[in-house]
Amino acid sequence: MTIPSSETLAAARLPRAFYDRDTATVARELLGCLLVHRVDGEERIGRIVETEAYVGAHDLASHSSKGITKRTRVMFGPPGHAYVYLIYGMHHCLNVVTEGEGQGAAVLLRALEPVRNLPGKTSGPGLLCRAMGIDLRYNGCDLQSDELHICAGSEQEVPSVVERARIGVDYAGAWALQPLRFYIAGNAHVSRK
Predict the structure, then answer these.
(1) In degrees rounded to 5, what are phi and psi of residue 12?
(2) Could you say which architecture CATH assigns to the domain 6-184?
(3) pLDDT 10s per residue in the chain (193 long)?
(4) For residues 45 and 117, is the Cβ–Cβ distance under 8 A?
(5) What is the reported pTM?
(6) Strand ranges (DSSP E) for the chain?
(7) Is residue 65 a contact partner of residue 59, using CB atoms and an 8 Å limit?
């Protein structure tokens, strides 16, 4: 993969309209895109290789199924913002809010392929956030910001996509079986094949 320059990344930033669409579509189309986080003047960049779609308050695997709470308020807000939460009291997870306000939909970023300045492993949502330096301070962050954003990947690198059931949502009944996990076929950085 060619490492993009900062100027190229700035021009390729995904517009808000990208996120204001069907959540499963956004989850698929985020594959191959670049997550960029500026930390102490250094750009940490990873190629998104695995996602999960949480399609709204009717999705029993989604945090939004419990309604609007202090934790989930961001999910019900405008698209194109970060929803960051803590799981097991120690791992941060980064989601991208999708669809229109009030929908409670988001895409979990599960794994990255390191591109630039990524220390440590990036296969799994907690490891991804640790390597990228993302924590609760970024909950609600506008993904149009210079500090944290997503850029389009190379048009020449259209990935072959695998669809599977999401991980760790057995409690969600029939929703646990929905093929709403997407990953790039054959990528070594996917969290679980």
Answers:
(1) -100, 5
(2) Roll (3.10)
(3) 556 666 566 568 999 999 999 999 999 999 999 999 999 999 999 999 999 999 999 999 999 999 999 999 999 999 999 999 999 888 999 999 999 999 999 999 999 999 999 989 999 999 999 999 999 999 999 999 999 999 998 765 667 999 999 999 999 999 999 999 999 999 999 998 7
(4) yes
(5) 0.94
(6) 34-39, 42-54, 82-87, 91-98, 105-116, 148-151, 161-164, 181-184
(7) yes
Q: Which residue in this structure is represented by tokens 């970023």?
A: 109
Distance CA 192, CA 132 (A): 20
Residue with tokens 């296969």: 123
Which of helix, strand or coil describes residue 76? Answer: helix
Using the Cα atoms of residue 20, residue 21, residue 24 and residue 27 in order, give the sign of their dihedral.
negative
| Contact between 71 and 82 (Cβ < 8 Å) | no
- Indicate the domain borders of the chain: 6-184
Single-letter code of the amino acid located at 74: V
For tokens 């929803």, the residue is 83
- DSSP annotation string for 129-152: HHHHT--GGGTT-BTBSSSEEEE-
Distance (Å, rounded) from C-alpha 165 to C-alpha 121?
23
